[in-house]
Amino acid sequence: MKKGLMIVFLVLALLFLAGAIYYWVTPAGSLPHHFPGYEAGSTHVHLKHGLASFILAIGFGILAWFSSKKTATT
Fold this sequence. Notes:
Elements: H1 2-25, H2 47-67
């Protein structure tokens, strides 16, 4: 069960990391319509959206790391 949870956290971390990079390199007018921050014809980049996605990626990465640790038996 713990291994499955670790894999889910790791996949989410990678997805949010990819989202952060996508936000940082794509202008707001070129984002897909369903992405938050889409503005038709806009040329600015959403740094805050990318930063929020990056922070979530770090959080899920930490959760994956802690869920992969073995429990101590005494």
